[in-house]
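re: the backbone from monday

yeah here it is again, tokenized this time
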């Protein structure tokens, strides 16, 4: 079709606006596609694009397209449409900072009047002369007098504002500052801004779902590992028990024969003692693992109950150490206690003893047998502190937080001491954490890899009634 010169001139601004819009769409598509591509390529490693980053990219492109002094994009937060700048372009950094502060969390009603708000809600553009509007502050003009504000509508609701500004004082009023094409273009850009906001929201939801799925997968993997470890760990002592019982049986038969022949000696009777000892040791190990599993299932069912009563932490620690000295043959365990004979706490003594024993059995398992273990009980500022220090491989900084998780076993940590009656289900420290937290205490580990670790917990001291005070008059 042929056009005469006049119609070409009339169509010029419309064409220009159309080209501008196309440019914006193309530029935007490349911003978000790039991001999606990276997300697909390296799932989980790239955080989703933030609304601030997308808004900023959008504002910069929009300003280039519109060739005006300033472009801004604001989100409106519930409940009363508080403004939040998500992108701006065209202002020097100090003015941009000021604008950010001026608008941040300011309700829309502090900025424009009710009539303008109604217009925006009705998806209409508002034109403002900042020197005339009722809420003018020289601070917020930023050298750009004539403002065009276009609503960003999401699902039929006002979700944000797209604003552009002109300084050009050659216009007698704001109406003449923006041509119909420019207004239409601004409205189109605000629609695109809505798409950007929506898309960023979807990308974020996607990334959240993805990382949730990854977490679930990791838990499922760890659970599978746990099942295979648990089956193995439970089977090993069972096999040993079976073997030793069979051995004891055979030796019993030999003893019976010797008894029938009248040649039964104390020496041959002692030969039956060794497989029985082994059986007991493995039986204890099995029992400990089954108890850990039972406690684990109690925690899951919210039935892990502490029976707290007044008790003496000195006694608890002393007994746990004595027990460990008996089981961990040959290991030196040094104990340091406070001068006072009683360190009073309100606690479930058996459970606190389990925590100390667990720390001790780990120290024994993971450090060389010839290295001593130090146990310390100290009292300071209303708190009792128990520490178990070993000279094993230590715990790496990354693992220091994770070893308290259920089923977690730090990679590359070898068992150096003998296994004795230990459980190896990766549940010990998890149970310790539950127990201490149910006593409102704190626990942790200090460790320098290669130089051993100190596992500790603290508990609040109980108030002991003064005997003199309570004595009958
Ligand atoms: P496990 O039954 O595997 O010993 P725990 O919950 O008691 O389970 O410990 C979790 C992990 O923490 C262990 O598998 C080990 O990797 C690490 N760990 C625990 N205690 C020590 C220690 N004293 N020294 C080095 N690593 C330890």
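seq for it, each position gets an aa:
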């Amino acid at each position: 079709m042929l056009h005469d010169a006049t119609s070409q001139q009339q169509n010029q601004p419309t064409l220009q606006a159309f080209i501008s819009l196309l440019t914006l769409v193309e530029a935007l598509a490349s911003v978000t596609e790039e991001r999606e591509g990276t997300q697909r390529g390296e799932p989980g490693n790239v955080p989703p694009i933030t609304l601030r980053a997308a808004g900023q990219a959008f504002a910069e492109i929009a300003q280039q397209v519109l060739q005006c002094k300033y472009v801004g994009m604001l989100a409106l937060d519930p409940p009363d449409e508080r403004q939040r700048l998500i992108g701006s372009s065209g202002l020097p950094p100090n003015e941009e900072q000021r604008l950010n502060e001026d608008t941040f969390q300011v309700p829309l009603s502090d900025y424009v009047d009710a009539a303008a708000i109604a217009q925006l809600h009705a998806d209409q553009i508002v034109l403002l002369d900042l020197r005339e509007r009722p809420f003018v502050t020289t601070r917020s003009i930023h050298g750009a007098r004539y403002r065009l504000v276009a609503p960003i509508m999401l699902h039929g609701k006002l979700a944000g504002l797209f604003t552009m500004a002109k300084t050009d004082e050659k216009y007698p009023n704001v109406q003449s500052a923006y041509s119909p094409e420019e207004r239409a273009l601004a409205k189109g850009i605000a629609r695109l801004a809505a798409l950007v906001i929506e898309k960023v929201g979807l990308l974020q939801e996607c990334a959240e779902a993805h990382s949730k799925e990854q977490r679930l997968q990791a838990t499922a993997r760890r659970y599978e590992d746990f099942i295979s470890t648990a089956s193995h760990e439970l089977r090993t002592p069972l096999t040993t028990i079976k073997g030793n019982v069979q051995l004891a049986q055979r030796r019993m038969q030999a003893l019976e024969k010797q008894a029938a022949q009248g040649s039964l000696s104390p020496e041959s009777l002692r030969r039956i003692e060794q497989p029985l000892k082994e059986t007991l040791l493995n039986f204890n190990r099995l029992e400990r693992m089954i108890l850990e599993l039972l406690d684990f299932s109690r925690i899951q069912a919210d039935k892990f109950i502490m029976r707290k009563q007044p008790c003496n932490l000195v006694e608890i620690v002393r007994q746990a150490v004595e027990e460990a000295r008996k089981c961990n043959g040959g290991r030196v365990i040094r104990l340091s206690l406070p001068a006072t004979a009683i360190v009073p706490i309100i606690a479930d003594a058996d459970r606190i003893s389990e925590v100390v024993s667990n720390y001790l059995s780990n120290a024994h398992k993971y450090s060389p047998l010839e290295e001593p273990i130090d146990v310390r009980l100290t009292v300071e500022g209303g708190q009792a502190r128990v520490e178990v220090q070993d000279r094993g491989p230590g715990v790496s900084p990354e693992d220091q937080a994770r070893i308290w998780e259920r089923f977690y076993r730090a990679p590359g940590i070898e068992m150096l001491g003998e296994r004795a009656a230990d459980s190896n289900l990766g549940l010990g420290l998890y149970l310790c954490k539950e127990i201490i937290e149910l006593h409102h205490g704190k626990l942790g580990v200090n460790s320098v890899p290669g130089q051993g670790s100190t596992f500790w917990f603290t508990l609040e001291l109980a108030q002991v009634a003064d005997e003199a005070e309570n004595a009958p008059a």
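Residues 309-460 form a domain with the Heat Shock Protein 90 fold (CATH 3.30.565.10). Residues 362-363, 366, 390, 392-393, 395, 403, 408-410, 413, 423-430, 453 surround adenosine-5'-diphosphate (CB under 6 Å).
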